[in-house]
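dude i think i finally got it to work??
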Amino acid sequence: MNSTSCPLVSSLTTAGLTCRTTLRIAENVYHDLCEVKDWRGVTWRFVAEHSLLMFIGQPPEEDRLVSVIPVPTSAQMSMHVLDMILQKCKMFLVEPINS
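look at this
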């Protein structure tokens, strides 16, 4: 994958995301949310210390923000990791978004 092929991939790489698999999944999820599902205001957050990437946006005809965490289907996560991810999601949904 060429990191200049998509502005999102370039931005994520600059933010410290280097896993090629995660970058490919992120690009696919982002395009699905924006182009297929027509979400509004899709932004992203990356927490390097936890390697956590999250998209935040507003689905059509809804007045709330929704978070999406792109992970491979083969990912195995403990309850502790899932709890940490949910806590980060809550934090990001109340912070101003500047991506």
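The two ends are 22 Å apart (CA to CA).
im so relieved honestly
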